[in-house]
Amino acid sequence: MELSVLNIKGEDTGKKVTVSEEVFGIEPSTHAIYLDVKLYLANQRQGTHKSKERAEVSHSTRKIKRQKGTGGARAGSIKSPVFVGGGRIFGPRPRTYGFKLNKKVKALARRSALSVKAQANAVSVLEAFTFDAPKTKSYLNVLNSLSLANTKTLLILPEIDNNVYLSSRNIPKAKVTTVDSVNTYDLMNADRLLISESAISILETQLNK
């Protein structure tokens, strides 16, 4: 598969880049995508929820009424969950929501996500670029030149470029990441993928291991 290389003005440079069919042209595995997205969202959860149970509530341990003769049920402590202010039964405890997912399944999910976008013609290859200083207007000019100002975009760079990253940070629908940090959720969440020309070969090498 061949893709045209564009510059930041949205003009065709005349160059073509050949992308691997094993990364951008496979039959997508929707189940692998589902699992990887589920793992990503699970890992975003803090899991710090906690409520006090019977042993943790601060109350007197005095027996609140005699055992027999009251006509009611036995009650040994005000900490009991049946009383107001008592502990909670089976309350939430801190936990991790993540689960194990094999590396090969994760790689398959990313290849599937890239193939989905490629089949939808939602992948653009850009010439390498940078900015002299972090400036939101500079990145907005790039998006406007590509007619993507109101589109969810994900720019994939070969390595972190602070000027580009900081320039994009205040734009709600724009995200910048690197080849090492790209994930299936971001790939599927974006309406348009912008991949740096020099990032293509690194991305293919990582996903073909």
UniProtKB/TrEMBL annotation:
Check the record and name the Pfam families matching this protein: Ribosomal_L4 (PF00573)
What InterPro entries would the database entry show? Ribosomal_uL4, Ribosomal_uL4-like, Ribosomal_uL4_dom_sf
Gene Ontology CC terms: ribonucleoprotein complex; ribosome
- UniProt keywords, alphabetically: Ribonucleoprotein, Ribosomal protein, RNA-binding, rRNA-binding
- Gene Ontology biological process terms from the UniProt entry: translation
**Molecular function as annotated in GO:** rRNA binding; structural constituent of ribosome
Annotated stretches, region: Disordered: 48-75
Describe the protein's quaternary organization and the partners it interacts with.
Part of the 50S ribosomal subunit.
Hey, which family's this protein in?
Belongs to the universal ribosomal protein uL4 family.
User: Which function does this protein serve?
Assistant: Forms part of the polypeptide exit tunnel. One of the primary rRNA binding proteins, this protein initially binds near the 5'-end of the 23S rRNA. It is important during the early stages of 50S assembly. It makes multiple contacts with different domains of the 23S rRNA in the assembled 50S subunit and ribosome.
Put simply, this protein is called: Large ribosomal subunit protein uL4
Q: Which species is listed as the source?
A: Dyadobacter fermentans (strain ATCC 700827 / DSM 18053 / CIP 107007 / KCTC 52180 / NS114)
